Amino acid sequence: VFTHCVFFFFLPGLGFCYSIINGPTNATVLAGSEARFNCTVSVGWIILIWLSNGNPVLTVISSQGAVETSDRFTSQNYTSSNGFTSELIIHNTQLNDSGKIECSTQQPSERSFAFLSVQVNGSLFIKNSTLTVQENKTVEIVCEALGWAPAPDITWMTNDSLIDKSMYVTQQSQGSNDLHNALSILTLTPVDTEILTCLADIEALPNPQNATVTVIFVNSTI
């Protein structure tokens, strides 16, 4: 905690002293959702400014409250005995909101910052919902992820067990609008009917997105 004190020498004994007690912390969210950041300043604060990538987006003045200039950036305020907390709420987050979020005090100036990462949950699909495979035949199953940010991690499962990474190859490519695509090809020689699941994951997703295919094994003696 850095404490700043300003004293007016022409008025002996008069001055103010305050600091940022707790600054904002990093956040990772899905595009379209809310992002929230807290900044707590000690008693005696006068003005607090929130900045997104260097641009002021919201000002809080102790005497009159929050001055909001955009519907997308609003705040909630909490006062306790040891300080004041401003919570910045970014609504309907977009990919270009990613970057530095700063809490700044004025008179004197002090800044504390965190980083916002906005991620995009794209689409995931396997073209066929079922595949019929003869005994001793090898099949390639293609799983496609389109329009993600960042590119998702792809894994495969069969009947709730992870498939070894040596059995599939995943390629990533740049899509449009700073989005990413991924193509994963699983090579398999089935010995039984099984359900295969392709999973795509990014940090902001609570659970991976999935696509499934049922591989129907046909015994050649039948």
Automatic annotation (TrEMBL):
Q: Which GO terms describe its biological process?
A: cell-cell adhesion
Q: Which residues form the signal peptide?
A: 1-17
Protein keywords: Signal
- Pfam families the record matches: I-set
The terms describing its cellular component in GO are:
bicellular tight junction; cell surface
* UniProt cross-references to InterPro entries, sorted A to Z: Ig-like_dom, Ig-like_dom_sf, Ig-like_fold, Ig_I-set, Ig_sub
Q: Does the keyword Isomerase apply?
A: no
What name goes with this protein? IGSF5 protein
For the Ig-like domain, which residue ranges apply?
A: 12-107, 108-214
Q: Which organism is it from?
A: Scopus umbretta
* Entry keyword annotation includes Chloroplast: no
